[in-house]
Amino acid sequence: MVRLFPFVLVLLTCGCTTHTHHVFHGRMENLAGDGWIEEGTRAIGGMSSIPSQNGGRLLSMSLDPAVSFVLRHPVVEPEKTLHAQSSNGELRAWLIRKSRPLGGPLRPTSLSKEFDLSAAVPLKGEMELDWRNNLDFVLRVDVRSEGINYAALRGQFEARHEREFDPNMVWAAPAMMMGIGMATTTSRHVDPSKDTDQVTLALVDQQIQRIMKNRKRHRSFCVKIPSTGECIDFSNGATLLDKTGVQMQGFGAKGQDERLAALKAVCAETRLRLRIIPMENEESIALIDIYGEPPAVAGTAKAILKGAFGVKDATPLEFIRMD
User: Fold this and answer.
1) Local structure of residue 103 (DSSP, 8 states)
2) CA dist 312 to 78, 247, 305, 316, Å?
3) Coil vs helix vs strand at 88
4) What's the gap between Cα 148 and its chain centre?
5) Where in the chain is the domain with CATH 3.30.1460?
6) Which terminus of the chain is less hemmed in, N or C, by CB atoms within 10 Å?
């Protein structure tokens, strides 16, 4: 009985996993200055919190690769709600539009030890903060900036850090203790020379519908256009979490004005948002979110490949990665 105790203890404790939940629910208007309006649930990336020189804390949350939301708030006691207008000083908020968004999340500067708010746009309106700690809070906002190119946020930020029971994990540790191997899923790099079936748009259609089957598990693939050398990534990680869809991601070098113009024209025709994200090496990333049911999403993706990249139904393509 004594020998079984460690095994039983492992069974009782290994079924829990730590889950981090950082999202914004609500309406987002013109955050990146491109006039785009979006409503839904969006994941928050690059969240960080540091002490403020003026007391309290500065909380930064990335809503987009090029946009961060920054909140200055007092040190709040756990389980306390703080309701304030942005003008009374207790809660102050800014929006930062970054010209080089892929340099990582917003970090304190080396001199001031605070976030660089020199290019920040003040947000005015009403906010309510339900606080537990830096990893567990709810912030309700109804704020907007001033001026012609205004930005607005109406909804709530949610941050939770909790342990959840995962039945699939119950057998993980005992299996490892007993030396039983467990299968893992890894990215598969495809050698086009060994493929017997020719890759065309029809197979791209099938792969898009495949990765959309299970949103809870990350799925992606990369297709190459041999005639131009361009690669386009497709993943089931579209920006809005409460809508089914895929995200197309392409890379472009400086001077590809024709390709950019073609992408803009196709996205305008299909009413999709095109985000061009500059990188340090004078290249850029083009991001397009496509929402809808799998057949419709696949059809729109093929229309973009045809209209912007010149791909025909019989154009030979290559799969270079599948997850």
Assistant:
1) G
2) 59, 21, 8, 9
3) helix
4) 28
5) 192-322
6) N
How remote is the C-alpha of 140 from its chain's centroid? 21
Contact 122/89 with Cβ under 8 angstroms?
Answer: no
User: How far is 266 from 272, CA to CA, in rounded Å?
Assistant: 8
CA angle at 248 for the pair 41 and 204, rounded to the nearest 5°: 125
* pLDDT surpassing 70 at residue 259: yes
What is the arithmetic mean of pLDDT over 18-36?
A: 84
pLDDT category at 290 given cuts 50, 70, 90 is very high
Q: Which fold has domain 192-322?
A: Yope Regulator; Chain: A, (3.30.1460)
- Token code pair at residue 126: 């009403």
Continuous H helices in the chain: 4-13, 172-177, 201-211, 257-270, 294-309
CA distance 142 to 156: 9
C-alpha 205/C-alpha 222 separation (Å) is 13
The Cα–Cα gap between 124 and 85 comes to 8
Identity of the amino acid at 30: N
CA 166 to chain centre: 24
* Mean pLDDT (whole number) for 262-268: 89
57-64 and 45-51 as β-strands: parallel, antiparallel, unpaired? antiparallel
